């Protein structure tokens, strides 16, 4: 199924209206990572949702690719102050993974191959706000940009869009991830410049 997300943005808005405070626009796509780049073959890749009760729901690469696919065009914003407009992605909305999961959780800890984690409110992954993205600009997502699949949560700073995603752990209480534990803002709204804990 090919469809544009409710968050699809046309070109009618001026670039100034789309640039959060403190950001600058770039045509490039900088590569920033905290450690080595994992190389995860799609043959061994898996994505697992674990509830607060320990119940698990898992998908292989083939099973993920059989889910409804969606194309979306989004502006992305990095905490290091660059913004890139009209980025083209293809992937599976998080709603498809979570629709049959019973949970009372309000929060999520996202884990990645390589050990990286980040935390988000569950509501920020639902209702067409987030995807597991596997294609960028018409090509399979490269390892440097988080391939074979990464989380895409474009309304938050891009460190929340965890590269090399491998799973979600649903939690009743907020549990800060890697960057949040060393001083990055717990939420990360670019329009409120939530870069650090004190912002």
TrEMBL record:
Region of interest called Disordered, as start-end residue ranges on this chain: 1-38
Which residues belong to any copy of the Oxidoreductase molybdopterin-binding domain?
35-179
What CDD domains does its record include?
arch_bact_SO_family_Moco
Q: Which Pfam families match?
A: Oxidored_molyb
Q: Provide the protein name.
A: Sulfite oxidase-like oxidoreductase
List the source organism: Streptomyces yaanensis
């Amino acid at each position: 199924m090919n469809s544009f997300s409710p968050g699809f943005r046309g070109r009618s808005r001026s670039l100034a209206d789309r640039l959060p405070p403190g950001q600058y626009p770039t045509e490039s796509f900088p590569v920033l990572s905290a450690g080595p780049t994992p190389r995860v073959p799609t043959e061994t890749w898996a994505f697992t949702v674990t509830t607060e009760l320990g119940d698990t729901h898992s998908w292989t690469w083939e099973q993920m690719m059989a889910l409804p696919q969606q194309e979306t065009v989004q502006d992305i914003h990095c905490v290091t102050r660059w913004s890139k407009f009209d980025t083209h992605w293809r992937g599976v909305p998080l709603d498809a993974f979570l629709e049959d999961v019973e949970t009372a959780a309000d929060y999520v800890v996202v884990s990645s191959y390589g050990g990286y984690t980040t935390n988000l409110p569950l509501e920020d992954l639902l209702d067409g706000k987030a995807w597991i993205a596997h294609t960028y600009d018409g090509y399979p997502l490269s390892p440097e940009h988080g391939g074979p699949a990464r989380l895409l949560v474009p309304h938050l700073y891009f460190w929340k869009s965890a590269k090399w995603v491998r799973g979600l752990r649903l939690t009743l209480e907020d549990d800060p991830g890697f960057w949040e534990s060393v001083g990055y803002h717990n939420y990360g709204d670019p329009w409120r410049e939530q870069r650090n804990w004190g912002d």
